[in-house]
Design a protein that fits this description.
The protein is 80% helix and 0% strand. By secondary structure, the chain is an all-alpha fold.
């Protein structure tokens, strides 16, 4: 639920700002440049999970009857944040690759002396 609230807050800020969200990272995080669609998914998924939590004692007593509500709400919430997660993972991988490359370069330079 926290991820849905977080992505909703970021998207509301993005929609209210005058700057334009462009580029591959923005396109990936917002379903191809559609922040309103991503916001709708995040709000609906989070609201569904919150309603489910009210009727299932914090999702601890989910039976077969409540499962029809919890699973789709979870899937919609996950779908709303998956683009942002992909952007974050790619950024981390780029930083790790650059760190490894710097380590290799400095290790080779250090061996010359």
């Amino acid at each position: 639920m926290g991820s849905g609230v977080t992505i909703s807050a970021v998207l509301i800020g993005l929609l209210r700002s005058e700057s334009v969200c462009e580029g591959l990272a923005c396109s990936t995080a917002t379903f191809g440049g559609r922040p309103v669609l991503t916001l709708v998914f995040a709000v609906l998924g989070t609201a569904g999970l919150l309603v489910s939590a009210l009727f299932t004692r914090g999702l601890t007593r989910v039976g077969a009857r409540q499962l029809w509500q919890v699973v789709p709400a979870g899937v919609v919430t996950a779908a709303s944040v998956i683009g942002a997660v992909v952007v974050l993972v790619v950024a981390v991988l780029i930083v790790l690759a650059a760190s490894f490359a710097a380590f290799v370069v400095f290790a080779l330079i250090g061996d010359r002396k």
